[in-house]
Design brief:
2 domains; alpha/beta; 7 strands; binds S-adenosylmethionine; DNA polymerase, domain 1; Rossmann fold
């Protein structure tokens, strides 16, 4: 691959650069390198002499990042297919104990959404897959077709804050009784029909399948537990003065990050550099609709 295959506009680049303020020779760990958008903005700041370590669960995204970062000086970039929840093991394997800055830009990216074969989007038909890491065995269709009704409803309620979770789970179980639900559009249709039975009022402004798709994606990729596991180990791997930046896209993630920063501040291990999370400004919100729900929190490691 010579050219990057997808356009990608990274979110909140200016505040990430300003608050991390990386310097030549420093080491950055990007736990969600994706298409390399933030990497392209941050890497020049740590040259010469710096190292940029980019992780992603998705080997397709790593391939794109590799192309985008192809002109970086030899030895300055290391891309690894790994879960950011395994940060301590990944750093140990690469011979680092601590780094200067860590960035997470959570969730799914525009290229994954646009690829119908990945099954992340209800706007086009594809296999109901939703795995970031295609080496893992379980796909979203395995949950949708096998879980008991009550467990499906819990996933929709707790991971998607879907108030019609029980009605939707019931409808899915009726539909799958007649034949397995294996595609994105088949699932979207089942959710739409559950909503239709509830009347227009409950649909709101977003597509009725939005929260169900988010909930299944979070469940199949264990997103909230990965974030918790990462935060549990992160402080020990930041140098004193080093900074952690996390961009989240829904209140479940942001709540976990907020609680972590509050607890670290109370324990005297981190200082909170963003008492209120930073959101995109009006220009960015217009230019990049994905930025509208983005929230950035940054904390700094204390200690000598
Ligand atoms: C929003 S995108 C990041 C975009 C990137 N900052 C850029 O500018 O191109 C999030 C990425 O995180 C990856 N991802 C999600 N969960 C992960 C995890 N637990 N460990 C590593 N990568 C993960 C996804 O595959 C996706 O490529």
């Amino acid at each position: 691959m010579d050219e990057p295959q997808h356009e990608h506009q990274p979110v909140l680049v200016e505040p990430v650069l300003r608050l991390l303020d990386p310097r030549a020779g420093q080491v950055i760990l990007d736990g969600t390198v994706g298409l390399g958008g933030h990497a392209c903005a941050l890497l020049p700041r740590i040259l010469p002499g710096g190292r940029y370590i980019g992780l992603d669960l998705d080997e397709v995204m790593l391939g794109e990042a590799r192309v985008r970062l192809g002109t970086a000086p030899p030895g300055s970039v290391e891309l690894v297919q790994a879960n950011f929840a395994a940060l301590p093991e990944v750093l140990a394997r690469l011979g680092f104990e601590q780094v200067d800055h860590i960035l997470l830009d959570l969730g799914v990216n525009s290229a994954q959404l646009a690829d119908r074969t990945r099954g992340f989007s209800f706007e086009q038909d594809g296999p109901l897959d939703m795995r970031y890491d295609r080496r893992s065995e379980r796909r979203a269709l395995d949950l949708v077709n096998a879980l008991p009704e009550a467990e499906l409803a819990d996933i929709f309620y707790y991971n998607g804050q879907e108030l019609a979770s029980r009605k939707i789970a019931k409808r899915i179980c009726q539909v799958r009784h007649a034949g397995r639900i294996t595609t994105t559009l088949a699932l979207a249709r089942a959710v739409e029909s559950a909503y239709a039975a509830l009347g227009e009022r409950r649909g709101g402004r977003i597509h009725p399948a939005t929260r169900v798709f988010q909930a299944l994606r979070i469940a199949i990729n264990d997103e909230l537990n990965n974030l918790r596991a990462f935060l549990d180990g992160v402080v020990a791997h930041l140098r004193p003065g080093g900074k952690l930046a996390v961009i989240s896209f829904h209140s479940l993630e942001d709540g976990i990050v907020k609680d972590f920063v509050r607890a670290a501040k109370a324990a005297g291990t981190m200082d909170d550099l963003t008492r209120r999370p930073i959101s995109a400004d009006p220009q960015e919100r217009t230019a990049n609709p994905r930025s509208r729900s983005a929230k950035l929190r940054v904390a700094q490691r204390l200690g000598a």
